[in-house]
Amino acid sequence: MSKPSPIEFARQVRQEVSKVTWPSRKETGITTLMVFIMVVVASLFFLVVDIGLSKAVEFLLGLGA
């Protein structure tokens, strides 16, 4: 398969981009908000797990003292 010329390549790219279904502004906003909410939920989950594991290690190390 031979490489197309730069002009042919640009034409093919334009054709492919015209086939893309782009999200609306509303869909983009909702998706962005969902990502931020999931980041907060995940960070709170890992904070709780980290604190719990920290307390468990402190307890286990305190048994030997």
Automatic annotation (TrEMBL):
The membrane-topology field of this record reads:
Single-pass membrane protein
Q: Which domain of life is it from?
A: Bacteria
Annotated Gene Ontology cellular components are: plasma membrane
Chain segments annotated as transmembrane: 30-53
Under the heading Pfam families, the entry gives: SecE
Location comes to: Cell membrane; Membrane
- Report keywords, A-Z: Cell membrane, Membrane, Protein transport, Translocation, Transmembrane, Transmembrane helix, Transport
Name the family: Belongs to the SecE/SEC61-gamma family.
Q: Which PANTHER family does this chain map to?
A: PROTEIN TRANSLOCASE SUBUNIT SECE
Which proteins does it associate with, and in what oligomeric form?
Component of the Sec protein translocase complex. Heterotrimer consisting of SecY, SecE and SecG subunits. The heterotrimers can form oligomers, although 1 heterotrimer is thought to be able to translocate proteins. Interacts with the ribosome. Interacts with SecDF, and other proteins may be involved. Interacts with SecA.
- This one is known as Protein translocase subunit SecE
